Structure formats: C-alpha cells, structure tokens
Amino acid sequence: MGVQRTSVGLDVHARSVVACGLNRETGEITERRLTPDHREILDWIGELPGPVAVTYEAGPTGFGLARALDAAGIVCQVAAPSKLIRPAGDRVKTDARDAAHLARLLHLGQITAVTIPTTDQEAARDLVRAREDCRGDLMTARHRISKLLLRQGIVYYDGKAWTGRHELWLRKQRFDNLSLQLTYDAAFDAMTACLDRRQRLEAAIEAMAADSEFTPVVRRLGCIRGIATLTAFGLATEIGDWHRLTGRTIGAYLGLVPSEYSSGASRTQGAVTKTGNGHARRLLVEAAWHHRAPYRPGTVLRRRWDVASPAARARGQAANRRLHQRWAHFDQRKKRSVVANMAVARELAGWCWSLAVLDE
Predict the structure, then answer these.
(1) What pairing do the DSSP bridges indicate for beta strands 6-12 and 52-57?
(2) Is the Cβ–Cβ distance between 233 and 209 less than 8 Å?
(3) What are the residues whose beta carbons fall under 8 Å from the beta carbon of 33, sequence distance 6 or more?
C-alpha cells in the first residue's frame, strides 16, 4: 500500500458507522457518525484530503463495504480483529475510540489485513458452512432421539446405529402416552428434515466442485487419503488464495502449531493455538485420522487419482506414505493419539498446500 495522506478508521455496526480520519501532514482528526449506506460513506471519504486509505474490523457485516470502496478506487484493508494491537491498560471502549485506534494503526502500518473474497468465493464458502451447520443440527437431532429412547429403556442392539436398518427400527417405535409419542415424532421429523437438507447441500457442493474455479484444487487435494470432494472443496473455499501462504506458515495460519511461553533460558510449549480458520482446521484434523490405518489404496482413492495430473498423483502418494509413517512412529512411541493426530494434521496442512500451489 502506498503512503496515504489521510488514514480512516471505521467502526462498523449493523445500524451505524463511526468514522475517524487522521491527516498525516497536519495531525487533524475528523470524526463523523454515519449510516451503513455505502454512498454516504463514500461521499464523506471524498471530502477528506487524498489520497485516502480505509480500514475496519472483519465481522458480521461482511465485505460489502470493502468491495464498494475498492470499486471506487479507495484502498481498503479489512483488519483481523485478533491481530489488532491494544494497550494493556486501556479499559475504556467506545465506538469513537475504536475508530480512532484503527486510524492510528493504519497510519503506522500496523494493520494485519484479511483476504477479501469475491462474491462467488464468499457464496461458495457460505454453502460449505451451511452444510457444516446442517451436520451439527443432525448430530443434535440424533442425540435427542437416542436419549429419549434411552430414558424409556429402549436401546438398539441390532448392528450399527444411524443406518437404513436402524432407521426402519426407529420408525416402528410407538408409545401409549400421547405426549411422549408427539415428542418422539417431532424429534424424528427434525432428524429426517436435517438428512434431506444435508443431501441437497451435498449435491450442490458436488456439482460446484466439478465445475467451478475451485475444481483444479479439489482434484489435486483428492489425491490424499481422507480428503474426498466435500473436504477438498471445504478447504479450497475456506483458504481461498493458497499462494499467500507457505508450507511453513500454513500450520500457524490454521492454529495447528503449539502455543509457547518462553522467557530467558526457559521454554514452555502448550496446546495448539487454535487461531485462524477453525472450519479448515476441523477438516484437516478429521482427515488426519484416516492415515493411521495401513496404507492400501482402495477403489475410491484410485478413482480420484484418475482425474488428477500425474504430478499431483505422485505428490499425493508421497504424502500418503509419509503421513502413515508418522502415525506408525507415534504409535511405536505410545504417543497419545489426540496429540499425534494434531501433529499429523499439521504436516497434512503442508502437503495440502504443496498440492494446491502445484504448477501443472
């Protein structure tokens, strides 16, 4: 970003925007309370001495304002809230102070900006997160059914739960108490509705993964065990531009590196930081468990290899062998499985990055 004459910090809310402009040359501060209307914000910024740069915190209001500023030729950085530098003794928080604080950080070049996705990329990411929300709703609905039956002393013993056979067994359950029957029917209807919604969302994701800007990355990531279409598409949409990361930094970006507190000669490491994108981190942690079993490529994995390039296929096979060796090494040392899996997930993130940026 070039040197701007005026640094503008915006504290953006659903119904109001508090703006603060800091003039680099004169030190003059200009404050204004605005509405979230983009036209009003652009008109006010146009009155300030140029060139102007703007920043505001990433949040529930989205990236619409940043796109409007960019379309108007105004430099805008959307700040990562977790990376903002705040004085330890600051105990007063108001909208005006937040806007002024953002303007000062922008003036000093201390803003850590997040990547602004396009409208299509954001829509694809929302689709993936809708499917993830549906997955959580389905788990909750199933939990309610199983515990409702357990309170009545009814337990399913005839095989694995939540299969087609188990669903037929659930449909046969009847209760003499009318209130209990209505409660059970409501819980069962909620579960079936979640199943239908999940199927629709997964079908939409499969179609988009086969023909969209994410398709090349999805096909390359599919060469790794545990990363099928849904997981690959989720990683592609959540991370977006893989080239802004490296094999060393992607683990820290996803919060998969150990926390550390070191002072003097002492060095203490704790649990992983769990910073960054939690959605992508969960996908990688789940995929890492697949590498514990012996590496024997199956039919489904070979089908995914067939649609990938030879270079991606070779890289994926190397990743599969390496990650299983890591699991075997941890098991040999009797390492706690959850700790070992997190280490494998961190290395898996690096392999995914190498495939995503692979030049074919």
Answers:
(1) parallel
(2) yes
(3) 16, 17, 18, 19
Q: Are 17 and 41 in contact (CB under 8 A)?
A: yes
d(CA 29, CA 358): 48
Q: What's the CA gap between 301 and 89, in Å, rounded?
A: 55
The whole-number average pLDDT for the span 332-352 is 95
Pairing outcome for strands 266-272 and 52-57: unpaired
Rounded to 5 degrees, φ, ψ at 300 are -65, -45
The H or E element containing residue 30 is strand 29-34
Which of 20-24, 113-117, 202-206, 265-269 comes out lowest in average pLDDT?
Answer: 265-269
- Distances from the Cα of 90 to the Cαs of 80, 108, 146, in angstroms? 19, 19, 49
Token duo for residue 291: 């590498």
Both tokens assigned to 257: 């590196």
Angle (CA) 317-322-323 rounded to 5° is 100
Q: What CA–CA distance (Å, rounded) separates 247 from 224?
A: 16
Tokens in use for 50?
Answer: 């140029």
Contacts of 74 (CB under 8 A, 6+ apart): 42, 45, 52, 53, 54
Q: Which two tokens stand for residue 88?
A: 């330890």
Alpha-carbon Rg for the chain, nearest whole angstrom, is: 25
Pair 211, 120: CB distance under 8 Å? no
pTM over 0.85: yes
CA 186-192-193 angle, 5° bins: 85
Tens-digit pLDDT profile for residues 99-147: 999 999 999 999 999 999 999 999 999 999 999 999 999 999 999 999 9
Residue-level pLDDT at 6: 92
Q: Which residues pair with 11 in a beta bridge?
A: 18
What distance in Å separates the CA atoms of residue 285 and residue 283, rounded to the nearest whole number? 6
Residue ranges of domains in the chain, CATH in brackets: 6-108 (3.30.420.10), 119-212 (no CATH), 217-356 (no CATH)
